[in-house]
Amino acid sequence: MNRQHRLAKAGWVIGVIGAIWLVGWSAAAWAGPIQPPAPDRAWLLDEEAGLNFRPVGIGGMGRLGTNGTSPPWNSPPQWSTYTPFSYPGNHSLYFEDGSGPGAYGPWAALTGYPQGTAGTISFWVADNNTGGKYILDATDGHRTLLYRYGAGYPENFGVYLNQTPIGALSGTSIAANSTWHHVALVWDNSLSAQKQKIYVNGNLVFTSDYTVGSVNPAYVYLGSRYSAQETWGGWIDEYALWNTPLSADQVAWLANNSIRSIAKGPQMNIPPAPTDAWFFDEGSGGAGTIVKPRWGNNPGTLYSNVGWTTDTPFVYEGNSALWFDGTTDNRVEFGQHTFGTAGSISIWAYRMPGAQYLFDSSPGARTLLYAQFSLFLNDTYLGNISNLLDDNRWTHLVITWDNSDPTAKQKIYKNGQLWATFNATLNPKTAATLWLGNRYSNNERWVGGIDEYALWDRALTPEEIAWLFQHSLHELPEPSTWALLMAGAIGLPVLGRCYRRRKGATQ
Ligand SMILES: [Ca+2]
Ligand SMILES: [Ca+2]
Predict the structure, then answer these.
(1) By three-state DSSP, how is residue 304 classified?
(2) What is the band of 115 on the pLDDT scale with cuts at 50, 70, 90?
(3) Which of 103-117, 278-292, 309-323, 335-349 is the least confident region?
(4) C-alpha 350, offset from chain centre
(5) Residue scoring higher pLDDT (448 or 100)
(6) How far, in Å, from the CA of 274 to the mean position of ligand 1?
(7) Residues 229, 361 share a domain
């Protein structure tokens, strides 16, 4: 055998070994973790401060609270830097367990829950073995829960899905040792067997085979029963859901990768400067106090028991919001404003049960939102909008109108998401006085908070409204700076870089 022949033979052998290795490698890769599609809603829990938190993108508001009456359980969940993944700005929520079974304590409630007959819930949990009960629940009538029950460790977890008990998961599956565990609940009624599956750290640890019906959307409670009692101790991060059942390989990916890299919100665009906007950051003063506009030239005057709160939808130094205590004639009265045939209203509202008029305009041009929830624009009744504002938490509301739109001249957005449309042709009206927090006759009052009230003379786009849900108007430059930027060709690209989506979430 000559040298060339030996080399050729060696090359052939190496080639065969390489081919076998490649086949083996690709088989291993095929069976390994597969990146799932973007979740239908994802909560990174990276806010770091405040009582309000948002999903990536649009569509829901989260709220922290407590029903505990004694320290330390009379505090809401705490923002923590203990997280399953490491990236700048990452946070989780820490829940101090209540003082025993049935005890009240901290909770995190969020909107968004896959109520169909197939879906996936994914979250990270670190149980600190302080005797807590409910890791997860959904409001009554929709209950989906993981509940630690029984005496002594290891207790089991009772599991419900869409109001149906589906069995018990071994308590050792989620060890109460303060280490992070990835939990995925996957269900699919169309399967012939194993319709429900629970994975912990990517391993299948539970199956059941119930036929589970669909339910209406509900609040999800983290770290608590829906009744805000029977709390739980430890950390929770990265709560996400899909309206489709993920595969075992996709769940395996989630057990090793942060959802931050796949959670995508919609496109966001910076809105134009409003014609009028009020931030209510005065923060003090009783009846007679003047609230200055940030944009425009229309100051408002406080009447009766309008007060202040630092519980605001956005966290920045010096932020405050108006608080209406329910006194019959509490209100803010402004000068006159003209609503044209195109425009937008953006407002943050914290509704307490029993609240009546959020805003009004009169005479002749009634533009108002009343009770639950009748909407008038320019003296035209548009309709009644179900569930537009949530009770006991902040909701972002945007109303747009544009007579040139052929099919949906009026659009109503809740928390950045299109919620209702109407198609009335609005006529121009004469200028009318603006009110916040009451009817023009001052006898049907709002109860709760109002912040960041702003008006535009054109209909905002969905991308601009998505930005407004995720960003405070405080992030727009001062009106004078804005005018300079708009006058210069470099303005918008510079703004695009400076006013990106807030920290801790991808666009
Ligand atoms: Ca996080
Ligand atoms: Ca404010």
Answers:
(1) coil
(2) confident
(3) 103-117
(4) 15
(5) 448
(6) 33
(7) no
Which whole-number Å values give the CA distances from 319 to 203, 308, 314, 335, 389, in the listed order? Answer: 46, 10, 8, 24, 22
Confidence check: pLDDT of 26 > 50: no
Phi, psi of 487 (to 5 degrees): -75, -25
Same-domain status, 112 and 54: yes
- The CA-atom distances, in angstroms, between 232 and each of 63, 79, 140, 163, 276 are 17, 16, 18, 21, 46
**Are 202 and 319 found together in one domain?**
no
- Say if residues 93 and 231 touch (Cβ distance below 8 Å): no
pTM (global) more than 0.85: yes
Residues with CB under 5 A from ligand 2 (ion): 279-281, 319, 451
Closest ligand (CA of 449)? 2
What is the phi/psi pair of residue 293, to 5°?
Answer: -80, 145
Q: Which of 281, 235, 264, 298 is nearest to 83 (CA)?
A: 235
CA distances from 332 to 114, 307, 367, 412, 444 (A): 40, 11, 15, 23, 13
* CATH number of the CATH domain containing 443: 2.60.120.200
Residue 500 Cα, ligand 1 centroid: separation in angstroms? Answer: 19
Task: Quickly count: other Cβ atoms within 10 Å of residue 251's Cβ.
Answer: 28
Give residue 472 CA to ligand 1 midpoint distance, Å: 21
Angle between helices 491-498 and 479-487 (to 10 degrees): 130
Q: Which ligand has the minimum distance to the alpha carbon of residue 313?
A: 2
> Which ligand has its closest atom nearest to the C-alpha of 240?
1
